[in-house]
């Protein structure tokens, strides 16, 4: 093969190929399928936030911002954080604004990992976690989330009423003298699991024992549905503020996923590490959108009303889709948070999740994500499919009507 025909992709990235989200969205477009695969709403975020971004453009806020964020959004994030944690932070040294949470993750991995450092990673994982760890030179050590009934009770994590748990022995074994980071996503994509306080305390104890840092992705922090499993920030547990880097973003909470405004909050040494990479990745997020995001967080009356309405809407669609999938014959694992449902498709007779989701998209007209790509051992996800319910009710009704063809 000539050099022009050979792959030019670096060896460390070649195994990951094209992200499954792009693949399934392309397949949905090809077949005119309703896209319940990729996690973005088919409705827009609040007008007051968009208006603020437009004003920022017209007022001339169109050049590079400070590397760690315009003063307005830095102050708004600090207030947002303190109002929920009672932990005051210094915007100058304890936060950074990034081009979405995805860039915050990449900057965290590049800024904190040295080659050979080990990273405890709960699976199924959001796909950029494993790729980001690899780019940072890290070595993933997996802890598998499974339906709670599949784990013997003496070894099952204290998950409360949630559908997914992990094996305590596997968590203990994942930590070694080389453990540098733990990646924690709660509420968790794709399972919808909200980690219980007791589970977070187990993780915190092991981090303290092994001097590990937690990088926690909390983009679904306000999108929870199970009162018994509210969102708990591991940074608020005793001794964890100094060893936790908390990441979040505007997109999920305010239905503006295309804006790509994210942020990180943590101790000055952890933020300095993240900024050391961020400055060479994007340097700064889009300036006028930072101003819009500042208004999203700072306008407390409009903010809280919008979030309450969104959670109410998502809760209805969660119930609607869960009921419909159960009636069709899926085994449904209702989520505690996020806007995804995992369901077991076994009764339909397909060999794995990839075959099922391709059939579902091409022949039924509804796209879902095959989650086996989010596991170190794809067989662990072969019986499952992930459906997004962050859509208008009319969209969900049309999807359910099409899904009825599976019967």
Descriptive account of the structure:
With 407 residues, this protein is an alpha/beta fold. It has 2 domains: 14-44 and 303-406, Aspartate Aminotransferase, domain 1, CATH 3.90.1150.10; 47-299, 3-Layer(aba) Sandwich (Aspartate Aminotransferase, domain 2), CATH 3.40.640. It contains 13 helices and 13 strands. The protein has helices at 20-31, 47-58, 71-85, 100-112, 127-135, 168-174, 197-210, 251-254, 268-281, 287-298, 300-328, 353-364, 393-403; strands spanning 34-35, 95-98, 118-123, 139-147, 164-166, 179-185, 213-217, 244-249, 262-265, 331-333, 340-344, 366-367, 384-388. It has an 8-stranded mixed β-sheet, sandwiched between helices. Strands 10-11-13 form a 3-stranded antiparallel β-sheet. Strands 1-12 form a two-stranded parallel sheet. Strand 3, helix 5 and strand 4 form a beta-alpha-beta unit. 49% of the residues are buried.
Entry keywords:
single chain, 407 residues, alpha/beta, Aspartate Aminotransferase, domain 1, Aspartate Aminotransferase, domain 2, 2 domains, 8-stranded mixed β-sheet, 3-stranded antiparallel β-sheet, 13 strands, globular
How would the blueprint of this fold be written?
Elements: H1 20-31, E1 34-35, H2 47-58, H3 71-85, E2 95-98, H4 100-112, E3 118-123, H5 127-135, E4 139-147, E5 164-166, H6 168-174, E6 179-185, H7 197-210, E7 213-217, E8 244-249, H8 251-254, E9 262-265, H9 268-281, H10 287-298, H11 300-328, E10 331-333, E11 340-344, H12 353-364, E12 366-367, E13 384-388, H13 393-403
Helix pairs in contact: 1-12, 2-10, 3-10, 4-5, 4-9, 11-13
């Amino acid at each position: 093969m000539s050099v022009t025909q050979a792959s030019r992709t670096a060896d460390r990235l070649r195994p990951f190929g094209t992200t499954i989200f792009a693949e399934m969205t392309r397949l949905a477009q090809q077949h005119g399928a309703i896209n319940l695969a990729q996690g973005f709403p088919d409705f827009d975020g609040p007008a007051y936030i968009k208006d603020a971004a437009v004003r920022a453009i017209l007022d001339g806020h169109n050049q590079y911002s400070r590397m760690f964020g315009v003063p307005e959004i830095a102050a708004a994030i600090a207030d947002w954080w303190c109002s929920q944690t009672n932990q005051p932070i210094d915007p100058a040294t304890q936060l950074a604004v990034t081009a979405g949470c995805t860039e915050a993750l990449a900057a965290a991995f590049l800024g904190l990992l040295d080659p050979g450092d080990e990273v405890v990673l709960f699976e199924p994982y959001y796909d950029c976690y494993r790729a980001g760890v690899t780019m940072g030179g890290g070595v993933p050590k997996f802890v598998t989330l499974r339906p709670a009934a599949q784990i013997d009770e003496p070894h099952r994590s204290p998950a409360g009423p949630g559908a997914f748990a992990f094996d305590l022995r596997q968590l203990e074994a994942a930590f070694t003298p080389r453990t540098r980071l733990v990646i924690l996503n709660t509420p968790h994509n794709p399972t919808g699991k909200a980690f219980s306080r007791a589970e977070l305390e187990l993780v915190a104890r092991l981090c303290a024992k092994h001097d590990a840092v937690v990088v926690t992705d909390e983009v679904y922090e306000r999108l929870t549905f199970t009162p018994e499993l509210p969102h708990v920030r591991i940074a608020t547990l005793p001794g964890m503020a100094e060893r936790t880097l908390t990441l979040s973003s505007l997109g999920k909470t305010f239905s503006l996923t295309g804006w790509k405004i994210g942020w990180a909050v943590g101790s000055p040494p952890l933020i300095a590490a993240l900024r050391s990479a961020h400055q060479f990745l994007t340097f700064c997020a889009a300036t006028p959108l930072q101003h819009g995001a500042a208004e999203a967080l700072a306008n407390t009356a409009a903010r809280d009303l919008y979030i309450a309405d969104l959670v109410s809407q998502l809760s209805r669609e969660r119930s609607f889709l869960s009921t419909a999938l159960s009636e069709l014959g899926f085994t449904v694992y209702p989520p505690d948070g996020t806007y995804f449902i995992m369901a077991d498709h076994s009764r339909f007779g397909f060999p794995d999740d990839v075959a099922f989701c391709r059939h579902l998209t091409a022949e039924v007209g509804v796209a879902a994500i095959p989650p086996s790509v989010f596991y170190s051992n794809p067989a662990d996800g072969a019986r499952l499919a992930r459906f997004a319910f962050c859509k208008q009710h009319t969209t969900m009704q049309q999807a359910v009507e099409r899904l009825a063809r599976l019967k």
